[in-house]
Structure prediction request, 135 residues.
Amino acid sequence: MRQWRRGWFDWAQRMPGLTAAPIQRHNGSTWEAPMPNLSIKDVPEELAEALRQRAARNHRSLQGELMAIIHEAVHQEAVHGGSGAARAPTSPHAGWRTGTRTIEEIDAELRARHPEPVQGGPLAVDIIRADRDSR
Prediction:
């Protein structure tokens, strides 16, 4: 491929002061420089399936999950200053409080604490009706 046919994005990167900001066209549409594509070849099936399951757990597409993993890795590198030290992987929900109990364990604990349902209490509909009638 000839040097002059490498594309706008390559050309724009070599020009000082020129950014890859959207360009307004004469018909009102905009054009943005294409984002680079990454490709990983020969991914073991077990790893690919684990990534698919992780994406499903996080309610993302596989593409979105991979982007989140890359973003987290780059962010961690920037935060730690590229120390190169081995770090434990973090989840995309790093700042969120997470528990170690399953739903079944929480259910069992609540049933042990309150074995019988509350009987004889007012119904929600009666409370709302009384509130509405008091106005």
Observations:
- The chain has five helices and two strands.
- Confidence is low (pLDDT under 50) at residues 1-5.
